[in-house]
Structures are given as structure tokens and as C-alpha cells.
Amino acid sequence: MIKTTGVLHFTIPVSDTVKSLNFYIEVLGFELIQHVPQIDMVFMKCGDDFVNLTKSKTSINPNNGNDFLVHHAFKIEVDKYEEAKKSIIDRGIEIIHEEHRYEGIFHGKQFYFHDLDRNVIEINALEKVTDGFSEDQINNKDYKVFPNLKS
């Protein structure tokens, strides 16, 4: 077994790296490290973490409609939540789901929206990380893990 020590980066598929790099800089405050046109890849930084944008050679459709379970989540300070939400709304970007989660692993206020290619982005004002759902909850067929999940 390989014992990994963390995540170095993850890659988000996009249809146009230039338009997308501007979106991620202007909307989410990412820092551009380097755009490499020869491979149509953009290397960016988000806080202490790295994200790559890569031109996809296939169509991008990670979710049906406004489903949001396939997504990329980014943390913000708890006291910046309303400001972040207003920033998205002021840009005319539709928030497709919002909740204040007190169950599961990641607790806090969160909202979801699409990027230019319909990749779902989560903004999370993370309050705490827990051990997650209890075995009783997971094994109970009548228990709905996320009762307010639109699908």
C-alpha cells in the first residue's frame, strides 16, 4: 500500500481554459501560477492548495440538471459567508442549493453554483469536521441522510 500524505492538486475539466481561468480568478479569488497553452492546462493556487484547469476533450456533464453531489468544495471563513453569497448573486450566478448542515462530516453553511462548464462549486463556511453519520443512521433504510437534498 502507498501511504499518501495529502492532496497535491485536483483537476477541473473545462471547455475553454482562458475563460475559465478568468472565472476562477474573478469569482473565487484563485491565483494564477501558470497557463501552458501547449497542453491547454492552467495551474492555479487556492489558499495553500492547488487546482488545475484542463481543457477536456470530452463533453463535461458531471450532474443532471441542478443535482450537486459531484462537486468541488472550497472553504471560506465562517464570518464571510453572507458576503460570499452576495458576491455570487451580484454576478448573476444562480445558487442551485443552500443549507446549514449540522450532520455528516462537514458542518457549516454552504451553497452551490455552476462554473462556466456546469461543474458544481461548493462554498463552505466550515464550522467543524466530525466523525460523520452514526452506523444506526447509515443502516436505517427510513433515515434520509440529507432530507433537504434536491434531486
- What is the helical fraction, as a range of percent? 10-25%
* Proportion of beta-strand residues: 35-45%
Radius of gyration: 17 Å
Instruction: Give start-end ranges of low-pLDDT stretches.
Output: none
Total number of β-strand segments? Answer: 8
Q: What structural class do you assign from the helix and strand content?
A: alpha/beta
Instruction: Kindly provide the name of the CATH class of the largest domain.
Output: Alpha Beta
What would you say the CATH architecture of the largest domain is?
Roll
Give the number of helices. 3
For the termini, the CA-CA separation is 37 Å
Mean pLDDT: 93
Which geometry do the CA atoms define? globular
Order of secondary-structure elements:
EHEEEEHEEEH
Indicate the CATH topology of the largest domain: 2,3-Dihydroxybiphenyl 1,2-Dioxygenase, domain 1
- Enumerate the strands of the largest sheet in spatial order, edge to edge or round the barrel: 1-4-3-2
Report the major sheet: 4 strands, mixed
What's the CATH H-level superfamily name of the largest domain? 2,3-Dihydroxybiphenyl 1,2-Dioxygenase, domain 1
Overall tally of structural domains:
2
